[in-house]
User: What shape does this take?
Amino acid sequence: MKNFELETMKEKIHFGKTKEYFEEVLSSYQIGSYRSSVVMLWAVAITDIIYKLQYLVDLYADPSAKEILEDVRNIQDEDSRSSSWELGVIENVLKKTNFIDTADYENLRYLQKQRHLCAHPVLKENLDLHKPNKETVRSLIRNTLEGLLIKPPFYTQKVITEILEDLDEAKEALNTKAKIKTYLESRYLNRMSEDVEFALYKSLWKLTFKLDNDKCNENRMVNIGVIRLITDRHKTRLNALIDADKDYYSNIAGAGQPLDYLLHYLSMNETIYPLLTEDAKLKVKHASESTDVGKTCGWFVRGSLENHYEYLVNWIEGENSPKFTQYQWKYVLELSDSEEWEDCYAKLISCYYGVSVDYDAADLRFTQHLMPNLKHFKNQDTAEFLLNKIEANNQIYRRNRASCDHKKVRESFERFLTDEFDYSVYPHFDDNTREE
Assistant: This one.
């Protein structure tokens, strides 16, 4: 890590006094005084831990932090020069709080060993004092910054409450996936342990997929955004956590908005669905066949995208005559980035246009649904599929706008159809689009 990167990380240190003391660590490192840098880094780390513990006591009256600080004070009262409490305090912080994890603890233990070698006259065979190299010191500084100094003093339950309140206040501004990612990672996720992050995920699961009240409805969109963000960061480990606590994660709503949101989430994270209990799966299966969201998103229940395509065709062309939104089409397209699925998507658009029940419906579906998606028709198979749908419905080819609209289709098809393509096989379309 370059010095300027250390400088950048320094600005993220939570407490101002810690940042001030850390300047001495960085100054020593930059001039090559590596022993001094390590000795001071350990002192800064321990001091920062004390600041964090006191913060937890002052703000939350946290009993664990209070107990740790009292133990330190008792040891110092007995022997003010003793440093025996220092290792003990990081052990207690690991066991009783949530602002360091096992990896952070081991890094701090290693820092303490290096500090001991640097601060005490342990002479080598050639009578030289121990001198850590530049790479070792840089690694110690980086690990201490990332594992401790830049982290705010969060206590699990308190920080979850704080984040939920913050999300409630900021939800209007957090209206895109990118904004949620930037905000949450900068403000919280990059500064907390994985265990706290998973506790947040667990709380949000219930608020998003189980509870149905005014406050949950107001915040459901931003909450699902945070759930997706944490999922992207820890997909593999989350599956194991859900499997180990499947009764909790299977306690889902039986209907309504919470279940719709769950269907959408599972459609993007289909490996979670098999981890649920059978009663939860029953709710999901029912929704996949009874609600518009479930029918659109429930491909994972049907076993494959191919099966889902057939299901959507039957639904679109069936008696229920569903009305798709642009958001639904966007979702369907994003189910897969394969060329095969793009062809299926183009055919679904064709089916939707093909079942227009009157001239007005055909006008609307062409303008809002077919025209914006013509770019997804890329081969003769998808073109012929659409042409057959047009030929089969006189509400499409007899309307006043048919000639103008279908000329745009024919022009788009020129991207991939050769001059030899025989439009006369589709006489109504050909008549609409033939040049006078």
Summary: Residues 94 and 298 are 43 Å apart (CA to CA). The two ends are 70 Å apart (CA to CA). The mean pLDDT is 92. Residues 34-60 form the longest helix (27 residues).
